[in-house]
Give the backbone structure.
Amino acid sequence: MTSEDAMTIKTIDVSHLPSTTFDYKAPIWWGNSWLLVIETVTFGCLVAVYFTVWMTLSPFPPPRVDRFPILYDSAPDLTIPTITLIVLLLSLIPEIWLDISARRMDEKMVKILSVVTSVFGVAAIILRFYEFDSLHFKWNDNAYGSITWTILGTHLLHLFVMSCEDIFSMTWIFKKGLDEKHALDLTVVAVYWYWVVGIWVLLYALVYLAPRFL
């Protein structure tokens, strides 16, 4: 192909298209969605291991007899885990509001809600560290302790990553303002947070309620 031929090739004018789109029209939305599929499969594997341990232990959870106080009924405590669950559910309110505000390019509200969502994330992380004691077992005590610590720890990792993302986005917006690219990032992060909360509702029921009522 000569340079003259190249000059005659028709091109498509895309100057009228928006520079940023939300939801399924944005490539990052698809990347985030497939990542959530992978993360869901990961937790599915952990749940499968949990049920395998359940089927091999009788009673379940096993009694704790290797240290005082001896616990024959070693079902996890509910107080701290329930508080954590409530905090996560309440965090959906500012997160949804932040999602909407980012789509509207409401910079003032985005700044306020970024701070609020970051506080909720840090609070959930702090509570999670206290949650481990609610299990009554250490990670290396037995198979039950190992899988429950792994489930809580894996979810804790997601809480930590999402909180870092929130704090980074908040810092950027306070320093340089809200632009369309970072507004899109906030909506994608919001979707991830919805998943983090939703998956924990299921895991809370599995780890804390199922041993008591099933």
